[in-house]
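Field reference: sequence -> structure
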Amino acid sequence: MDSAAPYVTGHADETAAGQPIGLLTSLVNAADWLYDHWYLLSLAIAACWGVGEMVVRRLAARASVERMALELVPNRHFDPGLEEIFRRGVQLARASTAMPWWAPRRAKAVQIRLRADGTAPLRYRVEGPAGGERLLSITPFGPDVSVKRARPIVDEPRTHTVRAEFILRGRLTSPLREVPLSPDPLQPLVDAVSDLRAELGDLAEIRLDLQRAPKWALRARRLQLMSAARRSERREAQRAARWLRQDAGSIEDSWGGQLQQLLSDRRGSGSGRRLVMPPVPRRVEPAEALGKLAEDDHLVRVQLLVMCASNTEGRAQARLAQLQAGFDVFGGRSRWAMRGWRLGPWRVGADHWPTRHSFERRWNLGHCQPPRANWVRLEELTGLLKPPTVHCRLPVLAGDLPTFAFGNPELLLQGIYRGPDGRQRLVATYAEETLFEVGVGKAGGGKTERALAQAIGWAHAGGGLVFVDPHRDSWPRATPFLAHESLMPRIALIDLNGLGPNPRVSSWNPLGMHHGQAAHEVVESIADAYASALAWDDATAPRALTILTAALTVLVAVNEAACQAGRPEDQATIFHVRALLTDAAFRRAALAAVAGRVDEETRSWWQVVFPTLPPDAFAVVLNPIARLAANPITRAFLGQPVGVYNIRAAMDSRMIVWVCPGGNGPTDRLLTALLARDLLRAARSRRDTPEGRRVPFRPYFDELITLTGAAPETIAAMFEDFRKYRCHVHGMTQLLSRLPTAVRLSLVQNASTLASTAGSKSAIAPITAEWGDNPSPDRVATMERFEHYVSMNVHGRRIGPIQLRGPHLDDVFAALARPKDVPALERAAHANAGALPLDQLTDRAAKQLERVAAFLAEHSPAGATAVHLSKEKEFGR
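Structure field:
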């Protein structure tokens, strides 16, 4: 028993000593087996990774379904500060985490979408988790940016599509360039899409995904950067020590060093090498080594994806190159560069395998998987965290300002717009939105030419208009382009200039009732025209207004009786006011004939008040009428019982009426006031027609200074009231400040279109002030001839002011010119206006008093009242 004990003990020792050796042997064998069967390990790792990735993708896709989209629309005065933009960035970063706890990190992101597809210069959308909607809806930008819920965008497939992902190149710790807010940092990107053509299927979209930086990834990145910085510093120290030793050795081995040792007093000093102290590695400062990654606050990871498409080959590629150049503006020590490889003329990137599938998945689902280098601070993204500001020059696209189409009644020509790509197109506004228009500028600048082009285009589209031109120059300019058989039945010329030995003149009876006007409206219209032209009011000329109103009431009643009797040719004219006031027999016959047609108050005034008036009380009323009668043209025009001119009928039948009053003297101003007031009365009389059945009509007033001098309150009332009756006024003037205050205020307040050509700075300043002095008066004053700055209303929002070239008739409407048919047009215009030779109308006007007197004699209650006035007695002749 004792002899066996040592044997047992030795065997146990051998077993204990062999266990580590056996374990080590097993590990070596396992490693050898794994080495021989490495593919099994790889498959296991790949399977685990694949299952994990599939689960993560499913969860991310499920989380992406619960996303919302907001569209931010800035107004024209949006001008945020750096602090407001920074706060917006903080909101975006915070909203990116508003996801369920189980959502993968790739789904926790907020996306900024900059999109241009032809409907707007650059649409700015924010998409993110549904839980962040409340946070994102209230922006620090205030009322200057409207936020609305956006609908999903569904794009039609394009023939050609290119894709690109941008990564940050340069030092990882270096920031992007600090881009100022003026001009807008988005301007290069806006310029890159400014020549986009929707009709060719052009599309460009930029998507910037923001994701809060994960702490573990940031710590790992910092550790990596600090280690790299320390290694770099050690290498630099070693390199410096090596060079220092080499320099010291080369000095000692040189002839100079040897000679210095021989001449030295100290013996034996050169027996050995000098001791060289190597430089100590410099301490690495974290702030210097980590750069923008040194602080945790406001650090985000970003993913920048771009897609361009078109139905025309080459345009998408060119658009992507333009956008790449636009991103170069943000480049400094760090810059945006397209991810991929270049192999000679070919580039392998997001459009090719193996990265295309990943790009499309992230693009469609909104997942954010940024490259390792895409770390930025919010301050670096200032230019992309807000919509375009007031400092951004936006292009005018076809979706913003429609292209003029000849013959389209929905469009109104405005001018020629030159796009950023040099292409020119005729632009227009929608007729139903162009309510009032004002054109200002110096003489010869192109105001009238632009108005004529617009009027001619409107006429060929079937619209009705009246063009009032005191100087008549517009008529011969427009006739070659209106001389079409389809237009001739609709054109009428009212020319009161009296050109030629025996000119043809139309006719108008302001008191005429043969068109079915309301009697009180006619009286009010003429009385108001007198008051406007002569500056009468209830304080300065109450008696004159009372006398004129009473006289007009009686004469209108006489005409109403004549029309009802079937004898409109026996109507009185405005020249018969004198006979009514000064001839007792005529007055008695008239009052007797209308005794049942006027109210008791009017009859009482004639019976009680009128006999007490002194004879000189009538001079102030009769003097203007005498001046009208002294002019043979106005006497012939206003002295006819059945006038052909009827502006209400012209409105309803889409007539094209040219009215040339013929001057700006006192007599012409009174006639202009009568015409203007009749136009206002006719428009207001459309109350009897349902709004949907009122035919659009456009009065054009050239030389507003002349016209408003005669009827300031009337013209002002037109700019205030005509919209309700679908009459849209277009006015042109050289100086806005020369217009009466009431006209100027109403005109600017209600103008849908405001245009200015070149002129003096003092004359242009009131217009540019309406634009916020952008452009400035200096810029507008130096424009070339026929250039205009124009602001317009399209789809309820203001476009411009933008620079347009005024349409020149000989260029824009060259195909419409029919100079050989102008004589036929002149004849048709005179015939439609009922124009007759002047001598014939003068003779008829002279005999009209006798016809009226005869009618009154027949229709007086007594039946035999004789009224006889010769032609010589009429008006003192």
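Note: The first strand starts at residue 67 and ends at 74.
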